[in-house]
């Protein structure tokens, strides 16, 4: 019979210690046995080099299918889970851990959403490999800015290849200035810098200025120094966005609190000076940050006539007051293949029809580049939805122009549409895609609407695709509450908007919706479409095809009745 030693006695203490030591020995033996078992697994026979190759397929730092910055919530959740899964993989066994931790290439994205401790670990494991630093304030990272020392990230600036910062708030005692001040040293391999803040602020002097190979610069609500231009010289992409927000929040650098918007934005001269250094620039986007158009007055003539050549530019996108957009576009010279995107989003544009002549001059200049090389437009997209008009032009399957601007129902607005379509150098077998809102389209007199398209420049259009909520472009009569007529009835020819396109062969209707239509309305719609086909035949311009995009609301017998009349012409899918 075994007697237990008395509680609190030396014998009891010795027994506890002996059992504890036995447990430690057993744990050590189990660990040793597990290690030996793992060593016998087939994957353990792979050399570390092959194991690293396998790890590259699952390490978030090496996966191209993950989005670490400014991701959709679903993508952000997926990226975060990928990091958690990767960390679990590195803890499978000691061998895997040694291989994974020992290869810096598996830790080259510094994903700060994992928290301050993991940020430090990622930085240390990357060693001196080129790294991408992703610092983003999100739903579960608000406290991150309170805890993460900017200096711990900036220390690794020497081997940072990308720095992406997106912050709506900084923690107490912190600011963008405190963060930016840490990046005052040379960053010899930094290729991409992306700074997005919630309120307008300036980059402090001396910060992010020594970046000799910087290729991509994205600034949102962040205004750089326009005097130190060395950092711009190698840029391939420059995106500058300053939404019209209230200035002077807690993120604003001291001294800018009471500065006006125009004082914080660059002047025409400053912006052109910066662009003049960007000889390799391919993508330029300036949104809500353009300088005001220079008035025609003595003393600014040199700046008004100044032109900066950007020979490699492929995209230029400008938004803001349309007068500012067109004025600044006039200072730029770029290839005919450049996509020029103009977006008028100022409240002033809704009351100022003086913008239209400026748009026409800008478009005419860009079209002259096309005509100098005999380039012809092969697709026109025209969308007039209240209250804006959108026009895009394509040459050789490549966009060369896009316009989005408020449309005013004035004589100047109507003349603008007529002038724009008259300017277009349209090639053979071109395509026109048009979408109108009923409220806008029916404000045009039929003859006036037809006159927009009754121009020699559009004679070679062979295909028209109609969208929107009205068939007005095909025939204004289709939007009228007309009495039912006999099959031979033909509304006056002036109502046939597209009878003025002599080269038209194919019409595709994508917007037929029969919800709520009674039988007599369906028959009226069918008869009007048939009348359009007949009227073109009578005019000697027969259609080759009438396509209807199938909609479940369209009765099949209605489609069949169309096809029965013109079996080789009507199709749907």
Can you describe what's shown?
The chain contains 18 helices and 19 strands. It has helices at 10-40, 48-55, 73-89, 94-102, 116-125, 144-147, 150-154, 176-181, 261-264, 268-276, 301-305, 322-329, 355-372, 411-423, 438-441, 446-453, 519-538, 556-565; strands spanning 109-111, 131-136, 160-167, 192-202, 216-223, 237-241, 283-287, 308-309, 315-320, 332-333, 339-344, 377-385, 388-395, 398-406, 426-436, 461-468, 506-509, 545-548, 570-572. Mean pLDDT is 83; it is low at 139-147, 246-258, 480-486 and 491-495. It has a 17-stranded mixed beta sheet. Strands 8-10 form a two-stranded parallel ribbon. It has 573 residues and is α/β, with parallel strands linked by helices.
Class of secondary structure makeup? alpha/beta
Q: What would you call the shape?
A: extended
Please indicate the percent range of residues in DSSP E strands (runs of 2 or more): 15-25%
Helix content: 25-40%
Contiguous low-pLDDT stretches (5 residues minimum) are 139-147, 246-258, 480-486, 491-495
How many distinct beta strands? 19
Distance between the termini: 92 Å
Task: Give a brief description.
The chain is of the alpha/beta class and 573 residues long. It folds into 3 domains: 108-251 and 265-291; 305-374 and 405-424, no CATH class; 425-573, no CATH class. It has 18 helices and 19 strands.
Please give a handful of descriptors for the protein shown.
573 residues, alpha/beta, 3 domains, 17-stranded mixed β-sheet, two-stranded parallel ribbon, 18 helices
Give the SSE map.
Layout: H1 10-40, H2 48-55, H3 73-89, H4 94-102, E1 109-111, H5 116-125, E2 131-136, H6 144-147, H7 150-154, E3 160-167, H8 176-181, E4 192-202, E5 216-223, E6 237-241, H9 261-264, H10 268-276, E7 283-287, H11 301-305, E8 308-309, E9 315-320, H12 322-329, E10 332-333, E11 339-344, H13 355-372, E12 377-385, E13 388-395, E14 398-406, H14 411-423, E15 426-436, H15 438-441, H16 446-453, E16 461-468, E17 506-509, H17 519-538, E18 545-548, H18 556-565, E19 570-572
Parallel strand pairs: 1-2, 2-3, 3-4, 4-5, 5-6, 6-7, 7-9, 8-10, 9-11, 11-14, 12-15, 15-16, 16-17, 17-18, 18-19
Antiparallel strand pairs: 12-13, 13-14
Helix pairs in contact: 12-13, 13-14, 17-18
